[in-house]
From TrEMBL, chain B:
Keywords: ATP-binding, Nucleotide-binding, Transport. The keyword ATP-binding applies. PANTHER family: ABC TRANSPORTER, ATP-BINDING PROTEIN (PTHR43335:SF4). Residues 313-386 are annotated as: Disordered. The keyword Transport applies. Residues 315-338 have a biased composition (Acidic residues). It comes from Leptothoe kymatousa TAU-MAC 1615. SUPFAM superfamilies: P-loop containing nucleoside triphosphate hydrolases. Pfam families: ABC_tran. Residues 2-231 form the ABC transporter domain. GO terms for molecular function: ATP binding. This is ABC transporter ATP-binding protein. Belongs to the ABC transporter superfamily.
Length: 269, 386
């Protein structure tokens, strides 16, 4: 019992330190700013821009096409969260790249490795920290969304938005965890970022690959695709398969990170 | 408290340390002294459980450092070669963090952190970000994180690197004040450091322990022998071999030639016996057409003992113990084995010198008796020993 308390206390210590380092890092603020600017820009274009949702809807009204009315809230959530997901793919590698490379550069890995704390507790604390930071990056966007939701007629189904955002965070957790593993492999932050970005691209395009393949292999590969499961979430469907997949990516990343740090200590010279 | 037994560590085919064994008693300060690249950091890292050893065992507080790593981690404080610091944290926040992951109970944390900061004179810097601190203060934060959880065993790898003289004295006093309740092992390549702070000294060279003793006993090993500083002009290799060939000289060390005129070289000699070799040295230099510019007698210091031990050991080992020869060869390949004149002059000349110098040193003892005793002690090159 006592040991569980210790482990939890350790995880919290790492978590708080990790979060604290994001909030003290100009780079993290820079990444967050770019993310906010792009996301709000996309949001505005999506709603008000040429061929935006409002224009489409006005056009539909004018043409008097009553037979197939646009479900605007639905269209909006799907497009907007889809864009946000793609945007996140660029941002997440930048968040995870420094998770372990910095520890190596500062020599603090030696402190962690000689303290009574397990590798996986460190990894879990770090993952929770970076996911929390991503969450705080998404939060301000909720203000913009609230404006649109408030002005919407017919009213929004809030479940739709909630499930979509849940999907976004879960997917981010999976990607960040794998990115953390990659950052544990190298001392170079830039290399970690590039490799993580490449991995994200591969996970993203898997669906394209899968659709070219027939039979069970294609199906299996398509199940690994981030995009496929994520788009289920953005359509307001709680996709249990996707939930399990994102969680599996996160656990896999944690496991590999703990292993690679252990192996690093054995091989280094 | 710390027991190290036959510890070896190989990086690929290079042996970093070989058969290192020593013990540290509770409450003692052991100095781990050796030139750069001798294997000090490797030994420290194995003790701290950061690196696994290739063979041999190390136990801290009766726990094996590798198999029982978590138990060992709880009882050590460790300052690595580069202090492990998070630049974006304040000193105080960092020490709180360390106290927390070291398992200091929540109620004791603020008191432990305050006491560590006070001991390391960090009070005025407590709210400063670590990245804004100077090297000396960072080093002190490094020491503070090693003692913040009040561990029974403290491992300090080069604790005074980067400090100014005043800070060095502070740190030495701090280390001394920790003795008694804590068992301390500290590594350094600075001699005065160990002679001032440590109860016992272990000297390591090229990955092997060459001596473990108190500072007084180590100095006594060369007691009676005389040191000479000499400046010559001419071919340095020739000077080295001429000096080495002298029966009355036990060891020759090339010193740095900084500030000397061109073609001038300095050497430090230690006499083989109590007989003053001054005139022999002078005539040998002059007879071999080398210019003699300075010859001054000095007291044998701990430094001479150190240099004597670390420069002489390979030849002694080679002579005594043919078993270790392969390892010796590997270690010699080490790029950190720097000085070419030293390396070249030593093995053969020294071996011959030792063989020649030994019988007259102690006419009462049979040379045949001496040899096995030497190999039993293996790493004790002090020839005045009975």
């Amino acid at each position: 019992m006592n040991s569980i308390v210790t482990v939890i206390s350790n995880i919290i210590a790492i978590y708080r330190r990790e979060l604290q380092s994001y909030f003290a890092s100009p780079l993290a603020y820079g990444i967050a700013t770019i993310f906010w600017l792009l996301a709000s820009f996309l949001l505005i274009i999506l709603v008000f821009g040429p061929q935006g949702l409002l224009e489409q809807s006005a056009f539909a009204d004018q043409a008097g096409l009553q037979s197939a009315p646009l479900d605007l809230p639905y269209e909006f959530t799907q497009f907007y969260l889809g864009l946000l997901g793609s945007l996140a793919m660029f941002v997440l590698p930048a968040l995870s790249m420094g998770l372990y490379t910095d520890e190596r550069k500062q020599g603090t890995l030696e402190l962690l490795a000689t303290s009574p704390i397990t590798n996986w507790a460190v990894a879990l604390g770090k993952l929770l920290g970076v996911v929390t930071f991503f969450l705080t990056m998404v939060l301000p966007l909720l203000v913009l969304e609230a404006l649109i939701v408030g002005a919407s007629d017919p009213p929004f189904d809030l479940n739709l938005l909630f499930i979509g955002h849940l999907g976004l965070i879960l997917m981010a957790a999976g990607v960040l965890s794998l990115g953390m593993f990659i950052s544990s492999l190298t001392e170079s932050t830039v290399l970690a970022a590039i490799l993580t970005f490449a991995m994200v691209l591969v996970l993203f395009v898997l669906e394209g690959v899968a659709s070219g393949l027939e039979g069970p292999l294609g199906e299996a590969i398509s199940h690994l695709s981030l995009l496929k499961h994520y788009s289920d979430f953005t359509q307001g469907v709680f996709d249990l398969g996707g939930f399990v997949l994102f969680l599996s990516y996160a656990v896999l990343g944690l496991f590999l990170t703990a292993q690679s740090i252990e192996a690093f200590r054995f091989q280094r010279n | 408290m710390i027991e190290v037994d036959q510890l070896s560590k190989a990086y690929g085919s290079t042996l970093a340390i070989k058969d290192v064994s020593f013990k540290v008693e509770p409450g003692e300060i052991l100095g781990f002294l050796g030139p750069n690249g001798a294997g000090k950091t490797t030994t420290m890292r194995i003790l701290a459980g950061y690196l696994p050893a290739t063979s041999g065992t190390a136990r801290i507080a009766d726990h094996e450092v590798h198999t029982d790593s978590m138990a060992v981690r709880q009882s050590i404080g460790y300052l690595p070669e580069t202090p492990p610091l998070y630049p974006d944290m304040t000193v105080e926040a960092f020490l709180y963090f360390v106290a927390r992951i070291k398992g200091v109970p929540i109620g004791d944390r603020s008191q432990r952190v305050a006491s560590a900061m006070e001991r390391c004179n960090l009070g005025e810097k407590r709210r400063i970000l670590i990245r804004k601190l100077s090297k000396g203060f960072r080093q002190r934060v490094g020491i503070a994180q090693a003692i913040v959880h009040d561990p029974p065993v403290i491992i300090l790898d080069e604790p005074t690197v980067g400090l100014d003289p005043k800070q060095i004295i502070d740190v030495r006093n701090l280390i001394k004040s920790l003795a008694g309740q804590h068992t301390i092992i500290l590594s350094t390549h600075i001699l005065p450091e160990v002679s001032m702070t440590c109860d016992r000294i272990t000297i390591i060279n090229q990955g092997r322990i060459v001596a473990t003793d108190t500072p007084e006993n180590l100095t006594a090993r060369l007691a009676g022998q005389l040191g000479y500083a000499i400046e010559v002009a001419g071919d340095p290799e020739r000077a080295n071999s001429v000096l080495n060939d002298l029966e009355q000289v036990e060891s020759v060390t090339a010193l740095s030639g900084e500030g000397l005129a061109e073609n001038h070289y300095r050497f430090q000699l230690v006499s083989a016996t109590e007989d003053d070799p001054g005139s022999e040295i002078a005539s040998a230099i002059i007879n071999s057409d080398l210019g003699l510019y300075e010859l001054s007698r000095n007291r044998v210091s701990l430094e001479d003992v150190f240099i004597n031990l670390i420069t002489e050991d390979p030849s002694t080992a080679e002579e005594d113990d043919s078993e270790t020869e392969p390892c010796e060869a590997v270690v010699d390949d080490d790029p950190e084995n720097d000085d070419p004149t030293k390396a070249e002059a030593e093995p053969d000349d020294e071996a011959a010198l030792v063989a020649a110098a030994e019988p007259p040193t102690d006419s009462a003892a049979d040379p045949a008796d001496q040899t096995p005793e030497d190999s039993a002690e293996q790493d004790t090159p002090a020839k005045t020993d009975e």
